[in-house]
Protein 1
Amino acid sequence: AAAGAGAALGIWLASRFGGRGNVNNPLSMQLALWGVSLWLILGFTVFWFPYNFEMSQAFLAARVTDLWVAPLSNYYYSSEYRAATEVLHKMLFFMPLGALLAYVAWQAPSRRFWLTASALAVAISACILEFGQLLLPGKYADMTDWLLESLGGWLGMMLVASLLGKLHHDS
């Protein structure tokens, strides 16, 4: 729900401050960058709570071996509904990050480069959040989660880039 509300707020802010067909508005760019910063703070807050990092070598060694399980295997042991909910949760949580980064990249002179850099930033953000969970007892880092989170961010990027491309083409 929070991810959907954040995406709706981002779309509203973009339409309010960006102007139809005019995405090169410094205020909207600043709002998008603030949105990225707030999303990252929220992401670290949600994924790393309660912040009781365990850094012993034995703990980390056991956790790293658990990281390389078969894709979706952690979802297998729950109900189908729980698994579907978790897949959607991971993807939808990262969509606003991708959307905001695409909006910022769209305004750059070398748009293709910045869209590629933004896609990489989404994947790195997901990797950092999952890696941090390796150090947290009670949390489970998973390569599947990293992939789903990255896909969600990339989907948000594609939706916003497509929307901005249509707005730019229509004006």
Protein 2
Amino acid sequence: MKIAMNMKVLSIAVVLGAWVFPAAALDQHKPLSDAIIKTLVEHRLIKRGLQRDTNIQVSVEDQVVVLQGAVRSLAEKKRAERQANRVMDVSRVENHLSIEAPERSDQQIADDLARAIRRFVFYDIFDWLEGQVRDGVVTLKGSVREPWRKADYGRLAEAVTGVSQVTNEIQILPNSIYDDQIRIAAARSIYGHPSFRRYANRSLPPIHIVVDRGRVILKGAVATKLERQLAGILVRTRVLTFEVVNDLIVDTEMQKRM
């Protein structure tokens, strides 16, 4: 009996030792050399399709990675930095990558960005985005319902050819069941009316309904001044809100602005 008990104790000690050893080994981890870090960073860049014909030069000194060369967009520049940061033992990444893209006008950039936003699967009538492009710098404004949407729209802008910088000033609306009820009621009031049913059948209806703490703001464009007035009246008379602001624009007015 005594021998069996001792063997049991010994077996437990062996098992515990198996669990303890890896932790001790991790504590004794030897940092990777600069040469190995350089190789791992280059491998990640190639694997993610960022390295094309040695367009990115990687150097490492004292675990600090320096990226130099050229990429096609701001999105690629940020992706390259993220990939380098994910390599073990990298202490810092200095991103000196430049963006080499065909020369494009601000209007071309704005048009491409507008198309990208309209095609974004999560862009709906309860979010509203607007912005401007000046010398390749994009400033995003508007209102969205979730924080991740703000980040996604920023990434959409970064991926547009010709964008050199993105300033994301999009407002995140408060999470409110009351506001959600107002959104649904306002959408039914507008798009359930015979005058707006043709808009309701579009993949992205033109009238956007922004709700912030019981306050409704109508954004977008309609065909006539009468439609603009009617949309505001429908929300004011059929939906319980604190305030209704009608910022809808008539198509002809939008063309004059352009």
Protein 3
Amino acid sequence: MDNYISTLIIKFASPCNLNCTYCYEYNTGDESWKKKPKFFSEENAKKLNGRIIEYLNTTPLSNINLICHGGEPLLLGAERLDYILSTIKKGIEDKINFGMQTNAVLVNEDIIQILRKHNVKCGVSIDGNSNHNKFRVFHNGKPTYEDTLKGYKLLN
């Protein structure tokens, strides 16, 4: 089984709602991201579903892991996130495990319902305590630490 891909990392949203000063994607002078699609599309969700089904049918794997990544994947919003996850897992509900890497500042009850519905396991990005986290700021310069903790607690 070691020769098969068992985990996919999919960029659900190219933009990020944070402006971390050290971000390699947005703060190093490379602006090629501006020419890329902002969000993973419904059309791509349908294509991915078909490709995963095809892959699982041609390998000995019984399931696959899919990690929702970004930018910030929660920028999709609850409704669009629900549609995309539903589309990706159509017909393979028992064969796909979802995960997500998030900064958690957009977590709310609507998002929690969607994450529960699809059994999405979340990892939360944070740089440590509030002092260590000083470079993780919103686009307006406001610190993110308290918002991240609030989102983390909701996820927990």
Protein 4
Amino acid sequence: MYSRMLVYAFPFVLIDRKVFGIESSLVSSDNNNGFYSIVEYLIQCGHRRIAFISGNTYGSTSRSNRFSGYLQAMNDNRVPIKDEYIIHDIVPFDYNKVFYDQTIKGNDQLKKSTIAVLEKLMRLENPPTALATTNDYIALYTMNIARDMGIRIPEDLSITGFDNLPICSLFTPRLTTVAQDFSGMGQAAVRLLNKAIKNPQKKPESIQLKTKLCIYDSVKILS
């Protein structure tokens, strides 16, 4: 689809993530520094055993940039990175299809996969004290599954998200997360699209918006 739009000079702007092989204007959040900020906050709270939880990390540039932020924050603060704490595919098959599938079958697959990941992590000799997840949906779902398993949040396990979705306000404890400026992204995309319409030969531009750390109740302070 994107290739056809390029061939026919149809103006468009990508939002949130790049499409590999497609040269186009892009509006995105600073995913790297945003994730860096939340991992650094966990470290400041005394956490050293911090797991990274994602769904298909390398399936999008936004998720891979968040993983980069995780690595940088851990390295800059001299916190060991353990392979067993890295979960790139909380759903080990079609992430988008299963995670957003509202059927009974899809929900059952997601539940089983999340339980398996939590059991694997908590059975480690030194289990993580915190989970840094790549979006709020994963964080909130994992939080609910953890509670069903008898894992208290944040007393036994701290959890963070990314996005600051309105639905977070309905959960207890309130999720510590990173806010994206969705409105600002939309406005910037419209500006770039107007430029592309007026001048189709104009070189693609990239705009990256800052994020904001939102501290609430899902992280336990260890020190």
